[in-house]
Amino acid sequence: MEKTIDCMGQACPLPVVNAKKAMETFTEDGQLTVLVDNETAVNNLKKLAASSGFAAADEKRGEGAYAVAIDVKVQGGDAPAAAGTKGAVVVISANTMGSGEEQLGKTLMKAFIFALTNVSALPEHIIFYNSGAYLACEGSDSLEDLKNLEKAGVKISVCGTCLNYYSLTDKLQVGSVSNMYDIAETLTSARLIIRP
């Protein structure tokens, strides 16, 4: 079985997400070729292949044109089981990811939340506080992804004090209003805390 997908021009993490979805469609051993336009995407695809236990090779086909060939093994080469994430809590304390340029931070946070919708093992809970509360409110670019996560069983909590502080109480679109006691209880009993 051979398949090629064109991910040229797609922003991170779309090439990886689309490659993962394509790999899951294989019913027999074969090769998936992913076309991308930058070396970061090439490296990310090779990491995806390695984490799945598959060999991968890349080829530069021209300026801004690369092909990554992944040898997909269905029998005996399935991806290693993901570590269990029962009790995994994602804590988002800002509407940006990292420090530095604000617009880049917003782009990274949007990409992170989208990537969460495509991971093999979803977190149990996502908590938003401080300016992170904006992400669960009207006008957020991440609402659709957060609603999909909630439909998939991920609990979403948003700090009520933060909603009040930023005058967002009437704009909450996903999740439920929480308080600092509940947040502290959740964090102290979490098996794993993830802070993007």
What does this molecule look like?
The structure is a single chain. With 196 residues, the chain is α/β, with parallel strands linked by helices. It is built from 6 helices and 9 strands, in the order βαβαβββαβαβαβαβ. It has 2 domains: 2-72, TusA-like domain (Translation Initiation Factor IF3); 88-194, Hypothetical Protein Ychn, Chain: A, CATH 3.40.1260.10. Strands 8-7-6-5-9 form a 5-stranded parallel sheet. Strands 1-2-4-3 form a 4-stranded mixed sheet, with helices on one face. β7 (155-159), α5 and β8 form a beta-alpha-beta unit.
- Strand order of the main beta sheet, please? 8-7-6-5-9
Name of the CATH architecture of the largest domain: 3-Layer(aba) Sandwich
Low-confidence blocks of residues: 77-85
**CATH homologous superfamily of the largest domain?**
DsrEFH-like
Total number of domains: 2
From the N-terminal CA to the C-terminal CA, the straight-line distance is 37 Å
SSE pattern: EHEHEEEHEHEHEHE
Q: Give the fraction of residues assigned to helices.
A: 25-40%
Q: Name the overall outline.
A: elongated
Rounded to an integer in angstroms, the radius of gyration calculated over CA atoms is 19 Å
Briefly note the structural class of the backbone.
alpha/beta
- How much strand? 15-25%
In the CATH hierarchy, the third-tier topology of the largest domain is known as Hypothetical Protein Ychn, Chain: A
